[in-house]
Amino acid sequence: MKKIISILCTMLMLIGFLDGISYSVLASSSKTLDDGWYYIKNVNAQKYLQVKDNKGKNSQNVEIGKGSGAKGQKWYLKNVGNGYVTLKSDLGNYMLDVECGENKDGANIQIYDGYSGKSQQFTIDTTSSKGVYTIATKSSNGKRVLDAERKGTADGTNVLQWKYGKDKKNQQWKFEVIKSSSSNTNDNNTNSNNNTTTVSKDNLKGAYGNIFGKVGSAVTLAQLQDSKSLDFIKKHYNSITMENEMKPDALLGSSAKKITVAEAKKKGYIIPSGYTEQYVPEINYTNIDKALKIAKDNNLSVRFHTLVWHKQTPSWFFKSNFDNSKGYVSKSVMDARLEYYIKNIMTHVYSSSNGSVVYAWDVVNEYLHNSDSGTSDWTRIYGDEGTKPTYVKKAFQFANDILKEYNVSSKVKLFYNDYNTYQVADKIVSMISYINSNGKVCDGVGMQSHLGLTWPSISYVEEAVQKFTNAGFEIQVTELDVSIGKGNSISAKEQEQAKYYSDLMKMLISKKKSGANITGLTYWGLSDKTSWIKDVSPLLFSDLDNPKKAYYSVIEASSTY
Fold it and tell me: Cross-referenced CDD domains, in alphabetical order (predicted)?
């Protein structure tokens, strides 16, 4: 059924594109409202734009209903440039969204995880009546607007996209400023020019969700299965990255479990057309499935980390007959294995009932640090390919193929992820330009950001952010922590760490305000107690019950947005 829907969406988008060519933009000139919380009232029905059943989840329908003050009727309008706005529901980090990014009449209006793409941007256009507006969709290039279906006035009347018609009151809306603060239970409150609401000071996603969209942490499956840890995660984050459970060694195992190609086909594995070997390795999806289900059940999004890496990938995957005692395979054989691995994992995710939670993939991790003096398994096969690595480009192409197949390219992003990106920023720009030379398949850069009090300087990190911005890349901070240095006590360095974190956040916010497309902020661990570098106390919490000065400095820095 998912594939059928995906195909239909693709067909509808194409039909809508052809249908929309002949129309001119009919709505009057855009008037941008101030950022802030609003109720949005349909003029014809005198009812309010709301999320069906007041439930925050992907693809939940949008309709009109009698004013109730419920969260599902509250919308945060944010100006995002060039006359466009986004409208975020008070139910979480869900944006008003045109289903499938369609541009034809009848496209449904829903909410979906915020990613600020075309289907989630609108213009608020004036009409001949004062204080009355139409809401035009960017996905239709402004030719179609939000419409209460068939001029309906009953509670539950569906809202869809339809060609603009002058004086059609079912397409007209009033924006009523919410003068009191949003619900205390809202974790995504944000400062606005109207001072209609304040930043939530008791959690990270409340402070930064409206700035960067995704606010996350590296977690383990055990932490997701522990009630106290899960409650902590849900309080502070709307995104998670599995620390190890989705890396190649976790999915392939220390030794190959081989099955014949014929057996693999019966089990539903994808076998690439260029695959010439008799066997394939089975992929263990058990922990992926467990993590995705917990994420879906708890309204958490997922960054998938990582598909291609020179570490934590078993050497047998590169050897003849998947036998570690044998020699390395040829480039062409490895290309086919790479395609097999990437396409099967991504297909498994997006064909599952929980796959919609995955919004970003670290397709390739740390390529520019992978040589290991020429001894890494990838280098042994492909050699040193500099900033034009053929297998890296193919990895992104394979991943992009699956996104297109499941029609999620507009909602899911593909990243190159690396550490010390400020040292190799120019190389990253060159490499991604090569990767995208035959069409865009890499959306941007994951800046790991394992930082320290004495190095790198904030300005050094800022230079890299600016280079990636100039290149047009999407940017996500993916593995943030700030070490106090070995041999130092946290009591002696806590204030210094708090200032570094604060200065870093203020810089990132400043770059965001000036145009940097920063769409995610992920910390590498829940607390110092469970950090991969616990001896240098790098995180915002010493343990789940004890926030550090750094935490409060980060929360406070959000007020500069």
Answer: beta-trefoil_Ricin-like
